[in-house]
Amino acid sequence: MKSRAAFVVAPLLVLAYGLIRIVDGFDGSRGPGIAWTTGHLAFLGALALFVPIFLEMRRMLGRTWPATLSVVVGVVGIACAGAQFAIDIVIGFMASSHEAMSPLFDQVRAVPGVSLAVYDAGPFLFYAAQLALVVQLAVARQVKWWTPVLVMLDFAVPTVNKDLIPLGALCLLVSFLPMIRRTDSGARHALAHA
């Protein structure tokens, strides 16, 4: 039941982050403040829920080595993205204005390896692993062919404009619907054979 809820709640938390981010920009700048912190906490919650989501996808794939490798890469990506959002929250608390945030971000990025691991490359491991798992599920006919397309849209749409994060989150939610049903049937199968 926990993983079933995660498939719904994670995209909804991403949706909340996207909507809060839009609201935060109404005054012409984003952060610091309650909207900045709340939005970032919502995304951190979504990232945490992707751990059971990835594990459930791995279970659906029969715990194969490609699925296991994808989960490991995904968890590393989650840790990197989580570090980025945690840093953003801390800087939001430290800064008195939006302008005061930039020098703090510059100091963090100046630490050797942080920019690459936390901002430039590390978080993409999360997205790559998610796509890899969904493609494996599609190849195994556990989900429909369009599921990876929706997951790719979730990644691609915000690169056009970050205000489209809510649209990407809705694509993600729709892509997860077949997996929620699979999780239900897997749980029923396990109970029947217990």
Order of helices and strands: HHHHHHHH
Helix/strand class: mainly alpha
Please count the helical segments. 8
How many E strands?
0
Task: State which percent range the strand residues make up.
Answer: under 5%
**Radius of gyration of CA atoms, rounded to a whole number:** 18 Å
Helical percent range?
Answer: over 70%
The average pLDDT score comes to 92
List the uncertain runs: 186-194
Question: What is the rounded distance between the termini?
Answer: 16 Å
Overall morphology = globular
Profile the largest sheet. none
Number of domains: 1
Structural description of this entry:
- This protein is an all-alpha fold.
- It has one domain (2-185).
- It has helices spanning 2-24, 34-60, 65-94, 98-110, 114-120, 122-139, 146-160, 165-192.
- Helix 1 packs antiparallel against helix 2, helix 3 crosses helix 4 (98-110) and helix 6 runs antiparallel to helix 7.
- The longest helix has 30 residues, at 65-94.
- The radius of gyration is 18 Å and the shape is globular.
- The two termini are 16 Å apart.
